[in-house]
Amino acid sequence: FLFDMQDNSRIQTVPANAFKGLCTQPITEIRLTRNGIKEVASDAFNGTKMYRLLLRGNKQLAHISPGAFVGSSELVVLDVSQTAVSSLPDSILGGLRRLVAQSAYQLKKLPPVQKFTKLRTANLTYASHCCAFTNMHRNSWHPQCDQPELRSILAFRRVHCSNSTSISCTPKHDEFNPCEDIMSPVPLRILIWIISVLALLGNAVVLLVLLGGRSKLTVPRFLMCHLAFADLCMGIYLVVIATVDMLTHG
Predict the structure, then answer these.
(1) Are the CB atoms for 41 and 62 separated by under 8 Å?
(2) Exposed, middle or buried, 123 (CB in 10 Å: 0-12/13-18/19+)?
(3) Per-residue confidence band for 139, with pLDDT thresholds at 50, 70 and 90
(4) Rounded to an integer, what distance in angstroms lies between the CA atom of residue 95 and that of residue 120?
(5) Positive or negative CA dihedral for 178, 184, 188, 191?
(6) Which positions, given as ranges, span the membrane (predicted)?
(7) pLDDT per residue over 154-184, tens digit each?
(8) Which long-range contacts link 119-124 to residues 24+ away (Cβ below 8 Å)?
(9) What is the pTM of this model?
(10) What is the DSSP-derived secondary structure letter of residue 163?
(11) Which of 54, 91, 99, 246 has the fewest CB neighbours in a 10 Å radius?
(12) Beta carbons of 104 and 80 less than 8 angstroms apart
């Protein structure tokens, strides 16, 4: 069973119990794309068994109530791409196998990755979010794997005795979006702030003194102005680096 309601700007909210009793069987997909939805209310999917929920394209959707999925089950795919959602309900994270949040620029912070216990695929907006999944390996070791007679069974070993389960995540990190901090050592982070502030203040004072004086601008003074201006630009550059490191640290 597929529920499809698209391109309806008059739909501004998904109310409580919106789909309760709609179908006795689990719903394969609820497609609410490109509507005017602004909010998903608490208990909106109460009593609804669904596999996939698509909220893509609701650009004004800014709030999904933490209790929106209370009483719901079976959800494995969630698509909140091209929305203004800034957080995801914790109640559904454990069952998701695929999360799609492309062009969801307000979703700047994801829940702890440990809550995505079954996630296999994530298509996100920011490459930094994928860094959290890169080195995440969920232990899937079955207690009976310690029994030699069961470990010798290839099918059982492949399913239950693997050391970890990886997650496929996009966009991938690259040279311009690295997973590592720009400056990891704390002393280096403190030092760059000290150097940048001193460079800004010192060279700004030099320029004010040289350009504000009434004496004739000689060649040596002109060269000193150039040198002070260059050092001032370097100070600005260091401030930019330190600021970006502070905002992206961790």
Answers:
(1) no
(2) middle
(3) very low
(4) 11
(5) positive
(6) 190-211, 223-244
(7) 555 555 555 446 788 999 877 666 776 667 6
(8) 119/167, 120/165, 120/167, 120/168, 121/97, 121/167, 121/168, 121/169, 122/98, 122/167, 122/168, 122/169, 122/170, 123/81, 123/98, 123/99, 123/169, 123/170, 124/99, 124/169, 124/170, 124/171
(9) 0.69
(10) S
(11) 246
(12) yes
Q: What sections of the chain are H helices per DSSP? A: 127-134, 148-151, 154-160, 186-212, 219-248
Q: How many CB atoms lie within 10 A of CB 85?
A: 19
| Averaged confidence pLDDT in the chain | 84
**Could you write out the DSSP letters of every residue in 112-135?**
PGGG-SS--EEE-S-HHHHHHHHT
Q: How far apart are CA 122 and CA 207, in angstroms?
A: 52
Residue with tokens 């208990």: 43
- Residue found under tokens 């800004």: 200
Could you give the strand order of the β-sheet that contains 39-40, starting from the edge strand earlier in sequence?
13-14, 39-40, 63-64
